[in-house]
Amino acid sequence: MTTTEAVTGAVLDNTCCSSTNTGVDAETARELATAFKALGDPTRVQLLALVAAHTESEACVCDLTAPVGLSQPTVSHHLKILVDNGLLTREQRGRWAYYRLADGTLPELARKLTSVISVD
């Protein structure tokens, strides 16, 4: 089986073996790629973990700058990418923005990934 067949689930009639793997549909592949692109920067992975570990899984941008050692504008830029990709939510309270994990997003991402990647 070729790599393409393993990923798409397509098996040509003239191949020597068939696959029971149904592959991944284009929409799921796009969703996973988008989420992993957002997580493709180590700083964003750190920020996601910091928000998750914070009291009530909510953190102000002012609480996140020191742990990652970056300026507030840089941290805000990374947080915006996580919000835009549905991994965090943002709530403005006066001068400060508070971030929390988007409900169900990470478990759903993990579920989708494990449904398309099977390791025997």
TrEMBL record:
Keywords: DNA-binding, Transcription, Transcription regulation
One GO MF term attached to the UniProt entry: DNA-binding transcription factor activity
SUPFAM superfamilies noted in UniProt: Winged helix' DNA-binding domain
Boundaries of every HTH arsR-type domain copy: 24-120
InterPro entries noted in UniProt: ArsR-like_HTH (IPR011991), ArsR_HTH (IPR018334), HTH_ArsR_DNA-bd_dom (IPR001845), HTH_MetalResp_TranReg (IPR051081), WH-like_DNA-bd_sf (IPR036388), WH_DNA-bd_sf (IPR036390)
Record-linked Gene3D superfamilies: Winged helix-like DNA-binding domain superfamily/Winged helix DNA-binding domain
Domain of life of the native organism: Bacteria
DNA-binding as UniProt keyword: yes
PANTHER family: ARSENICAL RESISTANCE OPERON REPRESSOR, TRANSCRIPTIONAL REGULATOR, ARSR FAMILY
Entry protein name: Transcriptional regulator, ArsR family
Species of provenance: Paramicrobacterium humi
